[in-house]
Amino acid sequence: MARIPDLEQFQGDWVLTRIIKDSLSGAEGHLTGRAEFTPMQDGAYLYREEGELNYGDQTPMAATRKYIWTPSEDGIAVLFEDERPFHTIETEKLMPDATHHCDPDLYHVSYDFTSWPSWRAAWRVVGPKKDYRMMSSYSRP
User: Fold this and answer.
1) 1 pLDDT above the threshold of 60
2) 3-class SS of residue 118
3) 3-state SS of 36-92?
4) Least crowded by CB within 10 Å, which of 45, 46, 60, 97?
5) pTM strictly above 0.70
6) Three-state SS for 114?
């Protein structure tokens, strides 16, 4: 059975590109930057991304984000920086998906590892004040 790469294979630097399409405002955003997976303790990795976000007519801005990726019984647990649960990546699938409910919004992600070592994460976010799609692509420098 095909599986996604082992967590340690994510270690190191990645080129990150992201497209955001907001259905409510009609705005489109583009982020270019980098992501890095740095080993922590107990087999976990700190995921940190930074880049420049160009969104609609707004002035370009610096964008950063951090998560913790850690081994779990079900695959890879993705935690917020403060260690609250976010979602789980099922390692038995090359194209796993997951959902996170953050009342009143719903976040759904579909990962695609079929072209490893390049991979993608496609997000669909909906709620009373949100309706956007976000496609992030990762490749080695």
Assistant:
1) no
2) coil
3) EEEECCCCCEEEEEEEEEEECCCCCEEEEEEEEEEEECCEEEEEECCCCEEEEEECC
4) 60
5) yes
6) coil
From residue 82, alpha-carbon distances to 55, 64, 66, 67, 135 in Å are: 27, 15, 9, 8, 24
Residue 108 vs residues 8, 60, 101: alpha-carbon distances, Å = 25, 26, 9
pLDDT tens readout for residues 55-112: 999 999 999 999 999 999 989 999 999 999 999 999 988 999 999 999 999 999 999 9
Written as six digits, the tokens of 15 are 């080129």
pLDDT of 59 reads 96
CA distance 13 to 2: 24
Distance CA 106, CA 16 (A): 24
- How many contiguous H segments (helices) and E segments (strands) does the chain have? 0, 10
| Distance between CA atoms of residues 129 and 141, nearest Å | 36
pLDDT digits (tens, 9 = 90+) for 21-31: 999 999 999 99
Contact 89, 76 (CB under 8 A): yes
